[in-house]
Amino acid sequence: MVNFKINNIDISVEENTTILQAARKHHIDIPTLCNYPDLEIKSECRVCVVEINGEKKLFTSCSTIAKEGMIVNTNSPKVLNARKTILELILANHDAVCATCPKNLNCELQTLANKLGIDENRFPTVLEVKPIDNKNPALIRNINRCIKCGRCIDVCKSIQSMNVLDVMGRGQNIEITPAYGKFLTDESCTYCGQCSSVCPVGAIIEKDDTDPVWEALNNPNLHVIVQVAPAVRVSLGEELGMEPGSIVTEKVVSALKYLGFDAVYDTDFTADLTIIEEGNELIDRITNGGVLPIMTSCCPGWINYVEQKYPEILDHISSCKSPQQMFGALAKSYYAEKMKLDPKNIFVVSIMPCTAKKYEAKREEMRIDSVNPDVDVVLTTRELGKMVRQMGINFESIEGSPFDKPFGITTGAAAIFGATGGVMEAALRTVYEVVNKEELKDINFTMVRGTDGIKEAEVELGGQKVKVAVAHTLANAKILSDQVKNGTSPYVFIEIMACPGGCIGGGGQPYGTTAEIRQKRIDAIYKVDENMTIRKSHENPDIKALYDDYLEKPLGHKSHQLLHTHYHSRKK
Amino acid sequence: MIQMKVISKRFGQINPLSIDSYIKAEGYEALKKAVAMHPSKIIDEIEISKIRGRGGAGFPAYIKLRALSNETGNKYIVCNADEGEPGNFKDRMIMENDPHAILEGMVIMAYATGSTQGYIYIRGEYQNAMNIFKKTIKAAEECGYLGKNILDKGFDFNVEVRSGAGSYVCGEEFSMIESIEGKPGRSRTKPPFPTEKGIHNRPTLINNVETFANFPHIVLNGGKKFAEIGTPSSTGTKLISLSGNVKNKGLYEVPFGTSIRDVIFKLGKGLENNRSIKMVQLGGASGPIIPEYMLDMSIDFDRFENFDSKTGTGAIIVIDDRFDIFDILLINMKFFVHQSCGKCTPCREGHVQIVNLLNKFISHRATEKDLMSLENLAYVIQQTSLCGLGQTSMTSIISSLRYFRDDYFAKVRY
Ligand SMILES: Cc1cc2nc3c(=O)[nH]c(=O)nc-3n(C[C@H](O)[C@H](O)[C@H](O)COP(=O)(O)O)c2cc1C
Ligand code: SF4
Ligand code: SF4
Ligand code: SF4
Ligand code: SF4
């Protein structure tokens, strides 16, 4: 143990504890900017400096290890002055227009300026306004607001193994940009949005698509429907001020109704459908000697990754569309017929935890009439939060209501799509029973749950033991992809989600996501599952009805037309 | 005689491109002696000599050597020949006049610390020195002083020449390490220090050219003898790069303890056209600016410590009364605006604001508040920057605010 003092308080911590960690443990607040939980310590912003007795220099508390007998002061006049000066310097090279900034009231720089009482800047602005990168459908980079904290570089490099972003230039002219170009479209960006989720300011944000949604809602000729992804029900509450992990499924429905949507549906329904189609694809490939392992296709961040980095393994990707796109396709075919509507007059909105879904919805392949997108607009959890605030809805106190019919019944298997391992578990619940023709004794496949980067399980299918694997984050996906590419993969089925923790940790989720918060959302997702009466996709009566009514059979002609697609190489 | 030639004793006396010429002048004798000694005994001699690093900060050399020798596995030795500090040319002079002395120092320390790979990181502009050093390495390899099984003692050591892309910050240890690894030269957060995690995260020793050139002398003549030269806190001799408005600019070697005034007037023969001194900048752009009345100060690391700076490189830049302090400060600060790597906030954003403030003084638009802002910002940059660049770049501003405060007031608009 190391004994030392912070602000005259006796503190005792384990060896190798930083001053910042020690202070936080004792509820002593030291502000930070470049520091982010779960990411590398960079000590670049210098905001967390503290004074150590006997030293002339100030020390960054994030990187300085507490030593026996140290006397640390976290808010001496010298420290406060330094912090304030550093913040003034940042603000003098920042496009500070808070009132019209998407990060207003949710911005770490703004909060810090307020906390440190900066009401005047001694330094004149030296900002040279540079163009904005808005060439892609998912993310906008506004480098005029970038404070060069390097968090985005770190996530993209160490969590996603993508290295899309880097520091270019030197000195005051440095820019955090795609390494070899100016635009994300110049690079193999997957639009996973993890960079936007860690950016402390409004320098990388999702492309805001709320305007076209308001327009559609106000257009009397349109039938505007919306689908809600599994992960959103455990995060929209958090976005709107409730505790992380609050389950708000029915409140979401009411809020969307209040916003004026004609019908509110659950993407869980097409998640169940995905399990039926993908499960049958797996069974088909196993029994007919098809390409194995089969890899999931629900995550568009992952699809963007494979198409650009591992086109060699595209045969392994399930041909199923993602649940979001299955919904869009059904909405503009089956649903249109059933409701006697012209598909052109149906406007489909998705609420997703994900920025890559915005890209997915824009793909050429995702148009059953070859012209109009099946999903018209994708909003992230954060954008829906914004609309709810714009309408002045008091979300916490709103009465809940159920999802609309058809597609009304969903299962626990679909709900867990939102967490890493969920698709695998849902698929196993179905595939096991279909293949082995016996009921599962325990439907909880805990082996594939949890936040380990790569998880494995073994199951018995048709008398033979097969291995499956689950990975989340692209750095882990890379490991499994390499095995598949080299022909050394021991698995028959692999689930991959690009974001840490799966969709609950998606790039469109509430800001400030950390490992701890992801865990709370995961716990909530499994609670949703537990509370469902039906927990296996193949037992969903509405799914059965859909096949009887319209699709005929899994992997049938109609399914292929509507629910399957192909992916292609986009190697750069 | 105020000059005392130890490092420069072979300058002009030998052919730097001929290893034979070096060998005839006691060359590689120290290495032969060293390989007969126990490695730890060599470091003991360095400790006894009390030699401090010649790269500017004056850090005791034996501490880093011992730290490195205590590590196991792959280790690296780097000779810092980046010499980017304006006003310095002593490292270039050693490389061009007595390159084998540097190499011999490196090989001795490779033996003493058990390192197998070395680099000499030479400033991009020093093409001539680079060519010479490549030949030096080749000749030493051919004669068995470098490469495999050196002097048949069964130890291997290779040296490669590396070069920066003309960036000053690459002279800073961690930026140099990043650059050697093939990345852009940007510093890293410390700790860990290079002797723990340097190149490829392996223990790495970085010393200045002049420091390495001193090692053979210490090994050959003993640490005790070396410690007798100079002052108790700063032993040995120092190469001085004398420049600016003096009559006899050039390189001089003096024992520590010599006064700055003697260097300027006895060796440099005073100012051109018998002008008077306005100020003297010590060390380079990141060194202090002192007035004429302080010139009796002796060249000594302990004296320099008052300035928190890299004064110890040994540059003396004399500026006569035609110049204004702001002329010099602006040149210095623009230099740092260009040289900042951009990694940490105070250095990246601060230097630009310092230049803005200086321009206000220069154009007589500054107020007393600006004076306070300048002083305050200078201290914040010094106290909070991540690496030595930002930690030392303000020395000229801070010292000028101390010794030339009236010059500031003269420009303040009331
Ligand atoms: C910005 C900056 C530039 C530096 N440039 C040099 C240089 O050109 N040559 C040098 O020897 N040391 C330079 N140093 C000091 C080195 O970081 C290091 O302290 C030195 O090489 C150690 O050698 P020594 O112990 O022999 O002095 C520089 C330091 C900083 C912060
Ligand atoms: S990024 Fe933050 S500080 Fe900057 S304008 Fe937006 S809200 Fe304000
Ligand atoms: S969206 Fe993902 S892949 Fe693209 S830059 Fe951001 S973190 Fe990297
Ligand atoms: S874009 Fe955001 S996360 Fe990236 S360096 Fe700039 S401020 Fe930091
Ligand atoms: S002090 Fe300057 S040179 Fe050093 S890390 Fe900071 S920005 Fe880079």
Features of the shown structure:
heterodimer; A: 572 residues; alpha/beta; Alpha-Beta Plaits; Rossmann fold; 5-stranded mixed β-sheet; 4-stranded parallel β-sheet; 19 helices; B: 414 residues; Ubiquitin-like (UB roll); de novo design (two linked rop proteins); 3 domains
Describe the 3D structure.
Chain A is an alpha/beta fold and 572 residues long. Chain A folds into three domains: 2-75, Ubiquitin-like (UB roll); 120-206, Alpha-Beta Plaits (2-Layer Sandwich); 211-563, 3-Layer(aba) Sandwich (Rossmann fold), CATH 3.40.50. Chain A is 34% helix and 14% strand. Chain A is built from 19 helices and 17 strands. Chain A has helices at 19-25, 77-91, 108-115, 151-159, 194-198, 210-217, 236-239, 249-259, 267-287, 300-309, 323-339, 356-361, 381-390, 412-415, 422-436, 474-486, 515-530, 541-551, 557-563, and strands spanning 2-6, 9-13, 49-52, 59-60, 71-73, 139-141, 165-168, 175-178, 204-206, 223-228, 263-266, 294-295, 346-352, 377-380, 454-461, 464-472, 493-497. In chain A, helix 9 packs across helix 11 (323-339) and helix 9 (267-287) crosses helix 15. The model of chain A has no long low-confidence stretch (mean pLDDT 94). Chain B has three domains: 19-227, NADH-ubiquinone oxidoreductase 51kDa subunit (Rossmann fold), CATH 3.40.50; 237-320, Ubiquitin-like (UB roll), CATH 3.10.20.600; 325-409, Up-down Bundle (de novo design (two linked rop proteins)). In chain B, 43% of the residues lie in helices and 12% in strands. Chain B is globular, with a radius of gyration of 21 Å. In chain B, 57% of the residues are buried. Chain B is built from 18 helices and nine strands. The N and C termini of chain B lie far apart (52 Å). Chain A binds chain B through residues 41-47, 49, 56-58, 60, 63, 65, 78, 81-82, 85-86, 89-90, 92-93, 122-124, 126, 147-148, 167, 169-174, and chain B through 167, 184, 186, 189-191, 308, 337-346, 348-353, 356, 369, 373, 376-377, 380, 382-386, 391.
